[in-house]
Amino acid sequence: MYHGIIAVPDIVKINQSELNEVSYKYFNLKPQELIKRSLLKGLKMIMITNGPKQIQYFDQLNSYIIIPPDIKGLCTIGAGDCVNAGLIYALKNNFKIEERLKFSVSCGNANILSEIPGKFEISQMYGLIPNIKVQKL
Asked: Is-contact 78 117, C-beta < 8 A?
């Protein structure tokens, strides 16, 4: 993850424990400071997941908290990858920022409700979107 961050890609999706490890171990910075510096160096956006808890999103102009619905599911394996896929799909299709965030998180949530990692019902994913809250910071 260290090499990924220093490469300053356009997008980083990282979970909170990975961010904490990279921030303290490799950069000797608080996570918030690493995010701030990475955005100043050219990172376009970062999404930080934290299991079933709220998700943080930062880009060069905006900061959001995304609150997923409280769901109990079968499969947490691949949920972060589904968030990634949803984010890329939403970017590629020019979703507005709040729609993009809801869409990507709903993909991860739909994965949790599925029995097979990465395979979920699209209708179920769309059904989750209204239950996702997005708050601008």
From this structure: yes
